[in-house]
Design goal:
The protein has 16 helices and 16 strands. Bound molecules: adenosine-5'-diphosphate and magnesium ion (MG).
C-alpha cells in the first residue's frame, strides 16, 4: 500500500469588529430582528453608492502587519458576480488581483516542541452576504439582510499543512491573533470566524499536488479537524479503489460526521471579476502604515518570549498560556498576587482552570474562580496551610461557589496537619498495624515505603504534611 501525504490549505473568513458595515452606516450588531439593520446600500437599491469604512481598512492593515505580510500601497475592490437570493446586488464587493495584504506568514507549534511556518498567500477585504432562513419557514425561504455588507477579511493560506492537527493549530493561531489585535470577536457560534478547508492527498515524496476538494463553512475547531480527517480517509479510499478524486465543493455534516458533495467543478463558478467602478482604489500612505504600526499590541509570540524571560517559564508553557489573550492576562494577574512560583501558576491555569472551563463550556471571563482567588489558594499551599492535593479539592469547591479559600479551609477543616507529635502518633500506628509490610521493607523492598505514606495520608484525609510524613516514617523504619 502506498504511503499517502495530505495537503491542506485554509481560507478563513473573519468578521471585523467595526461598528458599522464596510460600505454603509448600518449597524453590524449581532442578533437584531431580521432586516432591521439593512439600509439602501445593503439592500442593493438602484442609485446608491458604497462609501468605504476606514476602520475596516485599518483592521485589515493591522492583520497584515501582525503576520509580517506586505501591506499593499494600493489595493482595488472588485465585483464578484453571482446570483443568490441573499445577495440582492447580484455581486459581492471583494478584492481580486490587488488584495490589501499579501505574502504573510505565521509560525505554529507542532506540539512536540518543534515549530512550522505556514505561508499566508493573501488576505483581502470583502463584504458578507445576507442569510437565507430555511428552518423557520415551511414552504418558502426567508431572507435576512442584516449581515449583508458586514466587513470580512478572507485569509488564504498556502497549501502548507500536512494534517488536520496542523490545520487546527494554524486556525487557532489566526483566531488568537485577531483576538489579540482586537479586530474581531472571533465568535464562532455567531459565524464571525469560519473556514473552508481545501484537502488533497498525494503519494509521499511526490511534488505535484493532488486534486483537492473544498469543504465549506466550518465553524468550530472540532469540525475542521473532523472534516479534514474524513476527507483524507475518503480520498485515500477513492484512490486505492482505482478511482479519481473529483474537484468539488463539499459540506460537512456534523451529525453524520461526514462530508458530502455540494457542487462539482463542472458547475464551477465564473465570477467575472472586474474592478468596482463605484469605488476608488485604496492608497495606503507610509504615514498611515506607521500610525497603525504604533497601535499594534503585544502579540502572542512576543508575549511568550517575555513570559520565558520575566517569569522563567519554559517555551511550551509560555506558548500554551498566550494562545488566549485572556488566559495570558489571568496568568499574569495571578502571578503578581501570589508568592507561588510562576511555573506553578502556569500549571494551574493551563491545568485545573482550563479543564474546569472546558467542562462547563465557559470563557475565562466568566470563571467562577477569579485570578485573585487562585492567587490566595496558591498562597495557602506556599505557607503550608494546605497541601497541593487538598488545594485541588478546594479549587473545585470555589468553582462550585462555596466561598473563598480561607472560609472553605475552616468550614471543612482542611488545614494541613503539621504538628510533629500528631503525625508521629499516626506513623507509629501505621507501622504497628502493618507488620508484614514492615518485614518487606526491612528485607529491601523500598517500594513498600509508598504504602506507608499512603496509609498515613488516608487516615488524615490527605491533610498530613507530606514532607513531615516522609521524614518521620524514614526515621521510624530505619
Ligand atoms: P479558490 O479561490 O478557487 O478556492 P485558490 O487557488 O485561491 O482557489 O486556493 C484556495 C485554497 O486552496 C488555498 O488555501 C490553497 O492553499 C488551497 N489549495 C490549492 N490547491 C490545493 C491542493 N491541491 N490541495 C490542498 N489545498 C490546495
Ligand atoms: Mg476557495
Amino acid at each position: 500500500m502506498a504511503q499517502w501525504e495530505a495537503v491542506i490549505g485554509l481560507e478563513i473568513h473573519v468578521q471585523l469588529a467595526t461598528q458599522s458595515k464596510i460600505f454603509s452606516a448600518a449597524s453590524t450588531a449581532f442578533g437584531a430582528e431580521p432586516n432591521t439593520q439593512a439600509c439602501a446600500v445593503d439592500l442593493g437599491l438602484p442609485g446608491v453608492l458604497p462609501v468605504l469604512n476606514y476602520e475596516a481598512v485599518r483592521m485589515a492593515v493591522m492583520f497584515g502587519l501582525a503576520v509580517n505580510a506586505a501591506v499593499s500601497q494600493r489595493c482595488v475592490f472588485a465585483r464578484k458576480n453571482y446570483f443568490y437570493p441573499d445577495l440582492p446586488k447580484g455581486y459581492q464587493i471583494s478584492q481580486y488581483e490587488l488584495p490589501i495584504v499579501a505574502r504573510g506568514q505565521l509560525e505554529i507549534a507542532l506540539g512536540d516542541g518543534s515549530y512550522k511556518v505556514i505561508g499566508i498567500t493573501r488576505a483581502h477585504l470583502e463584504e458578507d452576504a445576507g442569510k437565507s432562513l430555511h428552518e423557520e419557514f415551511a414552504d418558502s425561504t426567508g431572507i435576512d439582510l442584516n449581515r449583508a455588507g458586514t466587513p470580512l477579511i478572507e485569509i488564504v493560506s498556502e497549501p502548507d499543512m500536512r494534517s488536520a492537527k496542523e490545520a487546527v493549530s494554524y486556525m487557532k493561531k489566526i483566531h488568537s491573533f485577531v483576538r489579540y489585535l482586537g479586530i474581531s470577536d472571533g465568535n464562532m457560534q455567531e459565524g464571525s470566524f469560519r473556514c473552508d478547508a481545501n484537502v488533497s492527498i498525494r503519494p509521499a515524496g511526490q511534488k505535484e499536488l493532488g486534486t483537492r476538494t473544498e469543504t465549506k463553512n466550518l465553524n468550530s475547531f472540532r469540525f475542521v479537524e473532523r472534516a479534514i480527517d474524513f476527507e483524507i480517509a475518503r480520498q485515500i479510499d477513492v484512490l486505492e479503489d482505482g478511482n479519481e478524486v473529483v474537484q468539488e465543493t463539499r459540506l460537512y455534516d456534523a451529525v453524520q460526521d461526514e462530508t458530502r458533495p455540494m457542487r462539482s467543478k463542472e458547475e464551477a463558478d465564473d465570477y467575472r471579476y472586474f474592478p468596482d467602478p463605484d469605488l476608488l482604489p485604496v492608497v495606503i500612505r507610509p504615514e498611515m502604515l506607521e500610525e497603525i504600526k504604533q497601535q499594534l499590541p503585544e502579540l502572542p509570540g512576543e508575549k511568550a518570549l517575555r513570559f520565558t524571560q520575566e517569569y522563567g517559564l519554559n517555551a511550551q508553557d509560555a506558548e500554551n498560556l498566550v494562545l488566549s489573550k485572556e488566559a495570558a492576562e489571568y496568568f499574569e494577574q495571578t502571578a503578581r498576587n501570589t508568592n507561588a512560583e510562576a511555573k506553578r501558576v502556569a500549571n494551574w491555569v493551563t491545568g485545573e482552570l482550563n479543564a474546569a472551563l472546558n467542562q462547563d463550556d465557559l470563557e475565562i471571563a466568566s470563571s467562577p474562580v477569579s485570578s485573585s482567588m487562585l492567587a490566595k489558594l496558591l498562597n495557602r499551599i506556599e505557607d503550608g496551610t494546605i497541601s497541593g492535593k487538598i488545594a485541588k479539592d478546594i479549587f473545585r469547591s470555589m468553582w462550585a461557589g462555596e466561598g473563598d479559600v480561607d472560609s472553605i479551609i475552616e468550614s471543612k477543616g482542611l488545614r494541613q496537619i503539621t504538628d510533629t507529635l500528631e503525625i508521629e502518633t499516626l506513623v507509629n500506628q501505621v507501622v504497628r498495624e502493618n507488620p508484614a509490610q514492615v518485614e518487606q521493607f526491612k528485607s529491601g523492598k523500598d517500594k513498600v515505603f509508598g504504602f506507608f505514606v499512603g496509609q498515613v495520608m488516608k487516615i488524615t484525609g490527605g491533610k498530613a504534611n507530606p514532607q513531615q510524613v516522609n521524614r518521620l516514617l524514614r526515621e521510624k523504619l530505619k
